[in-house]
Design brief:
By secondary structure, the protein is α+β, with helices and mostly antiparallel strands. The strands form two sheets. Strands 1, 2, 3, 4, 5, 6 and 11 form a seven-stranded mixed sheet that branches. Strands 8-9-7-10 form a four-stranded antiparallel sheet, covered by helices on one side.
């Protein structure tokens, strides 16, 4: 096979307590990337569809292109790829759109190799692709897209999947508002108190313990963000009311999805997540923003080759 198409789902980065190291995939929107194996020795972006603004066609400036250029370094000389990208995740939404193109690209490319590489290699190639858009090679979106579900995404080594109970669902609401990742990351500049790191670390430990033991009470105790959310909240119109709407519907916790402006909450049932999705959308409406909502198991899908 010399041609393959892969689909990568959207994801929620950070999951409140795990900035840049924790994320989970969601069922629904995603990016599709088609890769043709060539003898060009390089990567060529031949088409990008579905993007509301022009995206770079130069491979090193494109998330999918840079991921594949990184992959080529570990492959026999002379191999190349022609790439077509179909965007299905809104740009600047906090749903991992830049990572999805990189992940779908490496998964499709791996399918056309005579000797496929490991998921760990794909992970690090896709992180380099992510850096083309965000300026930082982080895996909190890449990891869950590759493995599916909730994933710990280290800077070095392979990502680690975290078990989650079947009843655990997420409500994710995306307002029709663009917040660029670079701007959201710039809001995090400045000093932090050591006490806040202790509180955040405690929350991460409790939330992960709750996932491993299927204990909703532990998840609720740990689900908080004292480091990032306070510095980004003002960038999202109506955020406080949207978060409170999720909590009023029984959320185990709620916060900003990735860099924002999407907002999410975890729930102990699908029905609860569906009720909250409507309430959160209404809160965004009160802030003057239309929005789209989705409900998914936290154990969302992984990227895969499709017909």
């Amino acid at each position: 096979m010399t041609r393959a198409t892969a689909f990568s789902p959207a994801s929620i980065g950070n999951v409140a307590v795990g900035f840049d190291v924790l994320g989970h995939s969601v069922a629904g929107p995603g990016d599709r990337v088609t890769v043709l194996r060539t003898d060009s020795g390089t990567v060529r972006i031949t088409a990008i569809r579905g993007a509301p603004v022009p995206l770079p066609l130069t491979a090193n400036e494109n998330t999918a292109g840079r991921a594949l250029l990184t992959l080529l370094k570990s492959l026999p000389a002379g191999l190349g790829f022609d790439v077509e990208i179909d965007k299905g995740i809104a740009m600047g939404s906090g749903m991992g759109g830049s990572a999805a193109s990189a992940v779908a690209a490496v998964v499709a490319a791996n399918a056309v190799l005579d000797t496929p590489v490991s998921r760990e290699v794909l992970y690090h190639c896709a992180m380099q692709g992510e850096a083309a858009a965000t300026g930082s090679a982080h895996g909190d979106n890449v990891g869950p897209m590759l493995l599916g579900g909730l994933v710990i995404a280290p800077a070095e080594g392979a990502p680690v999947k975290v078990p989650t109970p079947d009843w655990l669902h997420v409500a994710l609401v995306h307002p029709h508002f663009v917040l660029e990742t670079r701007k959201a990351r710039a809001a995090l500049a400045g000093a932090y108190e050591l006490h806040d790191f202790v509180v955040q670390s405690e929350g991460l430990a409790l939330l992960l313990a709750g996932c491993f033991t299927s204990d909703a009470s532990l998840m609720r105790r740990g689900f908080r963000d004292v480091l990032v959310e306070p510095r980004r909240a003002s960038l999202i119109p109506g955020f406080a009311r949207v978060k409170q709407a999720a909590l009023d519907c029984g959320a185990l916790g709620a916060s900003i999805s990735g860099a924002g402006p999407s907002v999410f909450g975890w729930f102990d049932s699908r029905a609860g997540a569906e009720r909250a999705s409507l309430a959160m959308a209404a809160a965004f409406k009160d802030a003057g923003l239309d929005s789209d909502g989705l409900v998914s198991p936290v154990s969302g899908p992984a990227a895969e080759v499709i017909p």
